[in-house]
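Supplementary Methods, section 5.1.

A reviewer requested that the exact input to the structure prediction be made available. We therefore reproduce it here, unchanged from the version used in the analyses.
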Amino acid sequence: MSLEPIDPETAVELYLADREAEVAKATLYSHSSRLGHFVRWCDEEDIDNLNKLSGRTLHEYRLWRRRDGDLAPATEKTQMDTLRVFVKWLESVDAVVDDLHTKVRSPVLRDGQNVRDVMLDSERAEEVLGYLSKYEYVSRPHVVVTLMWHTMMRTGAVHSLDVDDYDPDGQYIAVVHRPEAETTIKNGTGGERLIALSNEVCQLLDDWIANRRPDVDDEVGRQPLISTSDGRAHRSTLRGDCYRYTRPCVSTGECPHDRDPDDCDAMKYTAAFDCPSSVSPHALRRGGITHHLNSDVPKEVVSDRANVTGGVLDEHYDRRSQHEKMEQRRRYLDNI
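The structure derived from this sequence is encoded token-by-token as follows.
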């Protein structure tokens, strides 16, 4: 079979145009988002012709995407299943060799594996935030971890924030979907919202903006709230901040795994995720949601604040035990 050259971006555009009449807009948006990561990987790997795809390169993408997105098995399966459909479509337009889609592997989920239980509990969060407040006050990681815990925002939402999205007088921050400026948020415009902030968080943001924030614009002339000397902090930078400062040895000086910090690979700046006790932003978000629920914040309020439906909140985020839920209900009964 003679293959016809095609670049990744063009291929995805043609695929989405072909599927437009077959699937719902939400499905099309999901496929576009998932395949966007594949296009990004191809660009990083200098793959400008999909004729070059093989079982090995597809496996390399799977491993890269798992690390880059800190994916749960269920999410990884969804991403790779979409890629498999895309590769099968590529076969139909003579862009890749026949049956290549059979080499796209994805996890086989066991019962209950669609739910992750890893989270940063309230006690650990207090340790981490206490350390940052005392020893690294108004550092970028201090601002990032504080926002993730108190607002329960996803990494993409934190990444999207501009200085002007913060209203110090109204004490809130606006989460805005701006695809034209390459700062998208999950659920698109449906994820846009205003999030109220406490006095403490506002004071931190005020000090960050006034004294520590690198005064730079991003590539399109916007002023990112979370910036580095090079512009808007990359999502991987935000994830790294979370992994690095949730390593127990950083905030407590002790290692629960009996490792020597001088010899521990997880002490390297880019390898903090290798620490068994460090957690991802997703686990931080899950812990923040559970903390709010344990603090008697109504589920509807948590749902709106974190931009997650009640059903998804119950299944994927609420980590309260049945005993904890019972004791919370008991407090209401005592007032009757």
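DSSP finds 14 helices and five strands in the chain. These observations are discussed further in the main text.
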